[in-house]
Design brief:
Blueprint (H helix, E strand, L loop, with lengths): L3 E10 L5 E9 L4 E5 L28 H15 L7 H12 L9 H19 L3 H9 L8 E8 L12 E6 L4 H23 L18 H14 L8 E6 L6 E2 L2 E4 L2 E3 L1 H14 L2 E5 L10 H8 L4 E4 L7 H10 L4 E4 L1 H4 L2 H13 L3 E5 L9 H8 L4 E5 L4 H17 L10
Parallel strand pairs: 4-14, 6-10, 10-11, 11-12, 12-13, 13-14
Antiparallel strand pairs: 1-2, 2-3, 4-5, 5-6, 7-8, 8-9
Helix pairs in contact: 1-3, 2-3, 3-4, 4-12, 5-6, 9-11, 12-13
Bound molecules: 2-phosphoglycolic acid (PGA) and zinc ion (ZN).
The site of 2-phosphoglycolic acid has 11 residues, from loops.
Length: about 425
């Protein structure tokens, strides 16, 4: 049984230049591993709490010195010298030590960093790749790689809100990661050329590296994706599909969706989403409605379930209780899984298990604020994610994940899971 010898931490910076946390876990026997955690910007209201310093004179209050100090100052003395049978036991100890419902005392950022660093150190001791170690938490063993969903265009909070929706992503229908990325490159180049021609603009990119053209409507943005796919020499709907991250909570207020100059009620919003799915090769629709519009999610799900993934991000917050509620209400058919929304690997694994038990698809996702750490790629493979959503192909914190996936592909030769899964 692994015994924790030492836990240390540092404040480091993420891809937006904001602080985040890296933890290092050393086990008795000397195995030592680090892990960094990401941070969101369009966060769900029900997410676990990130501990930030709130010192207005430093990083606008976003510093993570306190979170890092919790690891060395409180978590280390409580856990050092103790043995843990498995990840669940360690995570339980962290949850108990924190003692709050949303991990607000020690901080979900501090807790997750320790949770993942411990997993990595254990994988090291076992001499297995991290994805294989992750697989052991959930079973059965993986034999496929996730499909990629890759940011092409961005709007919303990640791109100055020139259009309301957050992302238009491409989903290459290719049997390998290698071919999927080569296709994504072609489409990205075609899209960049299109933007230059239409708007006389060089590349402006959003937080996750998506292109951010000054479109006037969502449909203009989706339309451009279709044109870019065609100009790159591919067939929309068979070579490449689309996914939208609508991130509707971000433009929902007083029971109205403020979209493309219109005010829509929930029924009107659903009508709009169905129209997009009718017109464009959209196979997955994330957060089509707001996180607290529970009443209307089942209607959206009924309208689209045979045609597209009705994917819950802010709606579910990788939170087993919210997932149970969504299953009971038949609110959606797919989970967006972000471990830092819940704060430990064990709870994220429970979220994944619940979703898979009822036949939902699972998209493992990174955050808009990322680091060069690539454990999310191992997680997407180890937990048999149907899809993996690391962002665009042009920023190195995203490429760290794609490159890790290429390495896993080279090592295993596993094919990309087919659409639809199974
Ligand atoms: P976030 O955005 O990381 O800023 O929350 C990603 C998403 O909404 O999927
Ligand atoms: Zn989202």
């Amino acid at each position: 049984m692994p015994v924790i010898e030492r836990l240390t931490a540092a404040e480091i910076l993420d891809s937006r230049g904001r602080p985040t946390v890296r933890a290092t876990c050393t086990l008795a026997g000397g195995a030592s591993a680090s892990a960094s955690v990401p941070a969101g910007a369009s966060t769900g209201a029900a997410e676990a709490h990130e501990l930030r310093d709130r010192d207005p004179h430093r990083y606008g209050g976003l510093g993570c010195r306190n979170a890092a100090a919790q690891i060395g100052g409180e978590i280390h003395p409580s856990l050092a010298g103790r043995s843990f049978a498995d990840q669940a036991e360690l995570d339980r100890a962290l949850i108990d030590l924190d003692g709050t419902p949303l991990k607000s005392r020690l901080g979900a950022n501090a807790i997750l960093a320790v949770s993942v660093a411990f997993a990595r150190a254990c994988a090291l001791v076992r001499g297995v790749p991290l994805y294989q170690h992750f697989a052991g938490m959930l079973g059965p063993a993986p034999d496929t790689l996730p499909r990629l969903t890759i940011n092409l265009f961005s709007g919303g909070m990640h791109a100055g809100r020139q259009v309301a929706i957050q992302d238009v992503l491409i989903v290459p229908a290719r049997p390998t990661i290698d071919e999927s990325l080569a296709l994504a490159y072609d489409v990205y180049q075609a899209a960049a050329a299109l933007i230059l021609k239409r708007y006389r603009m060089r590349l402006l990119t959003a937080d996750e590296g998506g292109l951010a053209p000054p479109c006037e409507s969502t449909e203009e943005l989706i339309e451009m994706a279709v044109v870019a796919i065609k100009q790159a020499g591919y067939r929309p709907g068979s070579d490449v599909m689309l996914e939208l991250d609508v991130a509707a909570s971000q433009f929902y207020a007083n029971h109205q969706y403020h979209l493309d100059g219109a005010m829509l009620d929930s029924a009107g919003m659903i009508e709009r989403l169905v129209r997009w799915v009718d017109r464009y090769p959209i196979v997955s629709l994330e957060d089509g409605l707001a996180e607290d519009d529970w009443e209307w999610w089942p209607t959206l799900h009924r309208a689209l379930r045979k045609r597209a993934l009705v994917l819950g991000d802010d709606l579910l917050c990788t939170n087993p209780a919210r997932i149970r509620r969504a299953i009971d209400a038949q609110a959606c058919n797919a989970l967006l899984l972000k471990p830092n929304q819940i704060g430990t690997l064990t709870e994220a694994a429970e979220a994944c298990r619940l979703a898979k038990e009822v036949g939902w698809q699972v998209t493992v996702s990174v955050r808009s604020g990322e680091t060069e750490d690539h454990w999310a790629a191992d997680l997407a493979v180890g937990w048999r994610g149907d899809q993996f959503k690391p962002g665009s192909i042009t920023q190195s914190e995203r490429l760290a994940k794609y490159n890790r996936l290429l390495a896993i592909e080279a090592e295993t030769g596993w094919p990309v899971v087919r659409w639809p899964a199974g």
